[in-house]
Each structure stands twice: as C-alpha cells, then as structure tokens.
Amino acid sequence: MAARFESLFVISRFQAELDRLFQEALQIGESDLPLGEWQPSIDVVETPASVQILAELPGFSAADLRIEVRGTRILISGTKSTALPEAQRLKFHCLERGHGRFSREIHVFSPVNTHKGTARLADGLLTLDFPKIEDKRQEARVLHIEEAEGTADE
Q1: Cβ distance 79 to 99 under 8 Å?
Q2: Buried b (16+ CB within 10 A) or exposed e, 18-28
Q3: Of 103, 43, 47, which Cα lies nearest the Cα of 75?
Q4: Are 78 and 99 in contact (CB under 8 A)?
Q5: Do residues 36 and 57 lie in contact, with contact meaning Cβ atoms separated by under 8 Å?
Q6: Judgement on whether residues 53 and 107 belong to the same structural domain of the protein
Q7: Both 16 and 72 in a single domain?
Q8: What is the pLDDT confidence band of residue 112, given thresholds at 50, 70 and 90?
C-alpha cells in the first residue's frame, strides 16, 4: 500500500514541475524583446548646449552598429557575436553577457538639430551628441488678417 502512495507522490511532484516549466515558457512570450535579443544600457543627458545619448556597447566596432534618426526618434541597432571557446562539448555555468541582435529606440523631446548630430564609439561607449536649437514653436506671434474684397457693405 505504501508503494502506491509513493508513486502518487512522485507523479504529483512531476505534474507540479511540468506546470512550473509551462508557466515559465508562457512568460518568455510576454517579453517585449524577441527571443535572442538584448538591450544595452543607455543614459540620456541634457547639457546647456546639447542632448547626449550614451550607450554601453562593449565588444562592438563601428561597423557592427547602425544609427537611424527619424524626427525625434533615434534607433540604435546591431549584432554582437560572442566568441566561444573551441571545444566539442560546452557546459555553461553562467551566461550573462548580451549577445545576438539588439535594437534600442530613444525619443528625444528637447528641440535638437538631428542633421548636425555626431556619433563616436570609444572604449565600448557609444556617444551620440545632438546640438540643441532654439524652440520657436512656443513663441507667440501675430498673424496679419487679410480682408477679402467685396465683403464690406456695398
């Protein structure tokens, strides 16, 4: 009789483990990132003269990166391949370094001149610099009102 209860206990534990694994698999699909993508850390800094975007991209060369500017959106993307040791069988104990494709979109809400922006990669830090411009959209101005001919009392 004890063997019967023991097998039920093993089956119950197996079912609980399957449920846990299934829930983890569902949560992977809920991520904003496609499977295999990662996100570099960024800072957005405003100085009196410019807005800077600083992105940590260790191991990248300028040829590995693409920067696209569309209005107030800046898109940084690239692919990082991770060099692995030459071995027939690898067993990872810890795998934390980002690798694979990435795409990072940043919105810049300060008025900047994106046509005069610069990008510089040094020691794994990508620095994008956009000079600030005077925002004249908020200035008040008076519009001249034209009076159409023939609308006055004739």
Answers
A1: no
A2: eeeeeeeeeee
A3: 103
A4: no
A5: no
A6: yes
A7: no
A8: very high
